[in-house]
Amino acid sequence: MDDKCGVSELDGEHRELLTLHNDLVHALLGRASLDLERAFLDTVHHSAALHFRTEGRLIRRTAYARAGEHLADHRRFLAGVLRLRAQATDGPSLCDAALMLRCWLVEHFQEDRDLLDWLRRQARDCL
Questions:
Q1: The whole model's pTM is what?
Q2: Where does the pLDDT of residue 80 fall: very low under 50, low under 70, confident under 90, or very high at 90 and above?
Q3: 34-62 vs 7-29: helix axis angle to the nearest 10?
Q4: Distance between CA 41 and CA 35 in Å, rounded?
Q5: Domain residue limits, the chain
Q6: pLDDT for position 109
Q7: Selection from 34, 16, 12, 5 nearest residue 92 by Cα
Q8: What secondary structure does DSSP assign to the chain, as a single string?
Q9: How far apart are CA 127 and CA 124, in angstroms?
Q10: Is the per-residue pLDDT at 93 higher than 70?
Q11: Which class is 2-126 in CATH?
Q12: Fewer Cβ close by (within 10 Å): the C or N end of the chain?
């Protein structure tokens, strides 16, 4: 049923975002260059945007009650990544990015529990 309601797809994207966070931590430990930092922030922005498109499609398809709030959180996160990208300098902004991504992932995964429960209920209702 998780495949039918999109939960498996979202779970895979969540794992990908966690991998990005882990890669960022490794880059920090290796004292990444400014070019690597910017490339990483571009990758985070791109991956998050793809994930948000998937969630947005599922939210619109199922008329999720908290859609406005959830989608606004997506826009705020993407804007934050772009701000960090624009301010990128060696060291501090990469640490800021790691902290922002970690905090956001924890919060987003908590919020997505409601969305995933909603999607599962919608799928059951369609059976």
A1: 0.79
A2: confident
A3: 160
A4: 10
A5: 2-126
A6: 82
A7: 34
A8: -HHHHTHHHHHHHHHHHHHHHHHHHHHHHTT--HHHHHHHHHHHHHHHHHHHHHHHHHHHHHT-TTHHHHHHHHHHHHHHHHHHHHT--TTHHHHHHHHHHHHHHHHHHHHHHHHHHHHHHHHHHH-
A9: 5
A10: no
A11: mainly alpha
A12: C
Where do we find the tokens 């945007």? 49
Specify the length of the chain in residues.
127
Q: Give the C-alpha separation, 43 to 114, whole Å.
A: 27
Asked whether 7 and 120 are in contact (CB, 8 A), the reply is yes
Give 101-127 pLDDT, tens digit per residue.
Answer: 788 888 888 888 888 888 888 877 654
